[in-house]
Design a protein that fits this description.
571 residues, Rossmann fold, seven-stranded mixed beta sheet, two-stranded antiparallel ribbon
Length: 571
């Protein structure tokens, strides 16, 4: 992959960015000059990023040109360079972190204010008040370089405002990732002051042919030699335009295996014009991703889900993500895809029944009125229904929190548990995975349930004692405390059951299973898809491995009839 100076305006004057003295070159790198910004290899991006006086770099390119991949390589190069620098000089080199810009409204929120919650969501190290302060300090003291992907995913009317806000507010090094067309349009109304733009180029035909040759067996499958010959000689202009992008080359590599006849790509090229050929080949390859991922291969375990299940589920998921204008699949927001009323009713019934059983049993053993237990159970169910059956947005605090550090296997203990309880555990510094965040949300509710339930129960007992007409006595006080303990202990399982976002999300999974034919255990389905290369993770989030795949699946989505209730669950 190579880059060169863009042919259209995407930033301000190069001379202004080069002459800026805002940032000195990073230790081990020299200051960038204008001649360094004409063209180069993908590995040169680190030298530009680290030697640019303004500290502001824009990486642009067409769809599928490898922008996110280039950003990932830049991060790896930056971390490797940081490891090589020893002593006090290393502290002068910022740590690169990458976020997507989805959700930032520059008209209502300062970039630093928006970044702190992003740090907290991605890195459990920054949870809690102290963590938020630490994240803000790192940003303010230039200890991090912020790589912002997806400016093109921000609403069109907000892009110029985002550029102006970054110009005025970003006192740290910034690398901005955006599609070329959207960047050109945005700078017509707003400019990222001091930034230098580079534009990723198509892969050369010879490089593309060599790459495809290197990733296949020898001798290659049917049609492979003809495909690579045409690419290498650039004799088929339509084929060259279609295949010479990192996205398409990756799709060819991943979806054509064994005895698959790649000659059909040549046939598509022969039957259509250059532009139509490029689009048809890309769509053809995107349509092969799921079939390749869920193919039954001898010598390997049978796929847990068949192709029809996977296609149906991913088309629905991609459509919902497109409706929400996001490339992030946040499992704790999935309840918003399902009806609200059934979730509220089921939450209330479950919490109420559990409370009724525990309180009624305790009252019966103590000789009290069972009807009191029923009353308290009903109250508990109603409270749980409307509080814990709330909108999925409110569940993010639990879902993105760190897992507990109390277990010996995690190097924890009482002190570590206390830190975790305050969400500042040092053993949870690594980014969360979606699977870990799911478990963490459940564990947090279990650990929080006893103290909160007992505290509220005691408060209720003392409150009823205060309302009593009887003269205060030790017996009455002990009875009130005992009553409160019974209520509190009875509320523990109800609280632990319903206070975690895994509960409403699990209910949503069941509802989507019946209404949309998605797998019943969606989290297991997501993890399986990640292992098969369909999804990837970014902290506690899932994303489609290719953004174009998400778009293609969303285009193919259609309303799905309700499942026959007599059909066995497809888990």
């Amino acid at each position: 992959m190579r880059w060169r100076a863009p042919s259209e305006a995407m930033a301000g004057p190069v001379a202004a960015a080069v002459s800026s003295m805002l940032f000195p070159p990073l230790p081990g790198l020299r200051r960038v000059e204008e001649r360094d910004l004409r063209e180069g290899d993908i590995r040169d991006l680190h030298a530009l990023y680290g030697g640019l006086g303004s500290g502001r770099l824009v990486i642009a390119g067409a769809a599928g040109s490898g922008k996110s991949g280039a950003a990932a390589l830049l991060i790896l190069d930056a971390l490797e360079h940081r490891e090589l620098i020893l002593g006090v000089e290393r502290s002068k080199i910022p740590v690169p972190v990458m976020f997507t810009l989805h959700g930032w409204d520059p008209n209502n929120r300062n970039i630093e204010e928006w970044l702190v919650p992003q740090f907290q969501q991605m890195y459990p190290l920054f949870r809690g008040r102290d963590g938020a302060k630490n994240a803000a300090n790192l940003i303010a003291s230039n200890k991090v370089t912020v790589i912002l992907d997806g400016l093109d995913e921000v609403a069109e009317e907000l892009r110029p405002a985002a550029l102006r806000a970054l110009s005025m507010q970003a006192g740290f090094r910034v690398v901005l990732i955006c599609r070329s067309k959207e960047m050109v349009a945005a700078v017509q109304e707003g400019i990222f002051d001091g930034a230098v733009a580079v534009e990723l180029q198509h892969v050369g035909p010879e490089d593309a042919a060599r790459y495809l040759t290197d990733v296949q067996r020898d001798p290659p499958p049917t049609g492979w030699a003809e495909l690579t010959r045409r690419l290498g000689e650039a004799s088929d202009r339509a084929l060259v335009q279609a295949l010479c992008s990192p996205l398409v080359l990756t799709l060819v590599r991943d979806t054509y295996r064994g005895s698959d006849d790649v000659h059909e790509l040549i046939d598509i090229s022969n039957d259509a014009g250059s532009e139509a050929s490029r689009e048809q080949i890309e769509e053809h390859l995107l349509d092969r991703v799921l079939s390749a991922a869920y193919e039954r291969i001898e010598g390997r375990p049978k796929p847990r889900y068949d192709l029809e299940q996977a296609e149906n589920a991913f088309r629905y998921i991609a459509r919902k993500m497109r409706e929400n204008n996001t490339t992030d699949l946040q499992w704790w927001l999935i309840p918003d895809w399902a009806a609200y009323v059934p979730r509220v009713i089921l939450t209330g019934v479950a919490a109420g029944l559990v409370t009724v059983l525990w309180v009624a049993l305790a009252f019966a053993l103590l000789g009290g009125a069972v009807i009191g237990g029923l009353f308290l159970g009903a109250i508990g169910g109603i409270v749980a229904a409307f509080y814990f059956g709330r909108n999925a947005e409110d569940n993010q605090e639990y879902a993105a929190g760190p897992p507990p550090g109390i277990l010996p296997s995690r190097g924890g203990g009482i002190r570590e548990f206390a830190h975790w309880f305050g969400a500042t555990s040092s053993v949870t510094a690594n980014p969360l995975t979606p699977k870990a965040s799911w478990r963490s949300a459940f564990m947090r509710a279990i650990f929080l349930a006893p103290p909160i339930s007992i505290f509220l129960g005691l408060g209720l007992g003392l409150f009823l004692d205060a309302l009593s007409d009887e003269t205060f006595s030790g017996t009455l006080f002990i009875g009130s405390v005992l009553f409160g303990l019974i209520v509190g202990v009875a509320a523990i399982p109800a609280f632990a059951l319903t206070a975690t976002p895994t509960w409403p999300t699990s209910l949503a999974f069941v509802e989507l299973y019946f209404s949309q034919r998605t797998p019943l255990r969606l989290m297991r389905f997501f993890e399986d898809a990640r292992e098969r290369g369909v999804l990837r993770t970014a902290g506690p989030l899932y994303q489609f491995r290719h953004a174009r795949l998400q778009g293609r699946l969303a285009e193919q989505a259609s309303p799905v009839p309700a499942r026959d209730r007599s059909e066995a669950p497809a888990t």
